[in-house]
Write a structure and sequence with these properties.
Layout: E1 2-3, E2 7-8, E3 13-14, H1 18-28, E4 37-41, H2 50-64, E5 70-74, H3 80-83, E6 89-93, E7 97-98, E8 102-103, H4 106-117, E9 123-126, H5 140-151, E10 157-158, H6 179-186, E11 223-226, H7 244-253, E12 258-261, H8 272-281, H9 285-291
Parallel strand pairs: 1-4, 4-5, 5-6, 6-9, 9-10, 11-12
Antiparallel strand pairs: 2-3, 7-8
Length: about 290
């Protein structure tokens, strides 16, 4: 899969000009190792011309590489209608397993239903196999359930997130207990294919958030410290960036008595206008701020 630079939804333009893309296409051509061309990850539908921009970039690829398959990924189900069929394939992003909520598999079903309602012709799934401060790595049994939810749809393929990552601390390369589930999935014909259960001996103990350094009693106040909180208003929310809403949800799920903010509460600068705008975008962040006193 060839990444073509992506789209900046804050500026409503591609990060790389068409000339740069053409140069890259001429370098790789129609090499047999190329599976597809990745136009963008989560462009969203905030920009007024984003649909036509995605179509134009896909057409540009096809004009230089006949028979090329183009794709983009999106996590907002409400944006599927705008982005539907702008590329050959839509990659549907939804991560059902988190520390606050456990694994809510219905999120997968809901996102697939949104793609179907939007008239998406071809789509791939993005099975979760990673964890960070908010999202939790699935157990082998949970991983199989995630696959089976996707397999019950008419998806044509899948992009596992992720084998490794420079930002997410837990990924598939270090969670060998999930490899059997992935091997079983890779051997299926996808649609409607059930997967075998994982032997109990391979399932790790239940995963919980990282332990605190102390052992507070029920009478002790619970303090949560947070820093590097909010991107500039209008910045794209991705799986690894600008997740101030997820930060707020994670903090509040601990029902703290107080929250200490450690700095860098608002990027790129801490002006009052930006700070208030970000708080409007993340409806629960005001609750977090009220605890910070």
């Amino acid at each position: 899969m060839v990444w073509l630079g992506g789209y900046d939804s804050a500026l409503c333009q591609f990060r790389r000009p068409a000339e740069w893309v053409v140069e890259r296409l001429e370098e790789v051509g129609s090499h047999s190792a190329i599976h597809s061309f990745f136009i963008d990850d989560e462009p969203h539908a905030d920009c007024p011309n984003v649909r036509q921009q995605m179509i134009n970039r896909s057409d540009l690829v096809k004009s230089h590489v006949p028979g090329a398959v183009t794709m983009l990924t999106e996590n907002r189900g409400g944006d599927f209608a705008t982005l539907a069929n702008t590329t050959d394939v839509l990659g549907i992003i939804v991560y059902p397993c988190s520390y606050p909520s456990g694994c809510v598999y219905s999120k997968i079903d809901e996102r697939i239903a949104q793609a179907e309602a939007a008239g998406v012709d071809r789509y791939w799934g993005a099975p979760q196999s990673f964890g960070d401060e908010y999202y939790r790595v699935p157990t082998p049994t949970e991983q199989i359930e995630i696959f089976e939810r996707w397999n019950a749809s008419r998806m044509e393929g899948y992009l596992g997130y992720a084998w490794s990552s420079h930002t997410d601390p837990e990924t598939l390369d270090t969670h060998e207990e999930l490899w059997d589930a992935w091997s079983a999935q890779n051997s299926t014909s996808l649609v409607g294919s059930p997967l075998p259960s994982v032997p109990a001996s391979t399932a790790p103990p239940s995963v919980s958030p990282p332990p605190s350094s102390g052992s507070p009693s029920s009478a002790d106040p619970l303090i949560v410290a947070v820093g590097d909180i909010a991107c500039a208003p209008g910045s794209a929310v991705t799986a690894t960036k600008c997740r101030h809403q997820a930060t707020s949800d994670l903090v509040l799920s601990q029902t703290p008595d107080a929250v200490l903010t450690l700095g860098d509460q608002q990027y790129e600068d801490g002006t009052l206008v930006l700070l208030l705008r970000s708080r409007q975008l993340a409806h629960r962040v005001p609750e977090l701020l009220r605890l910070d006193r």
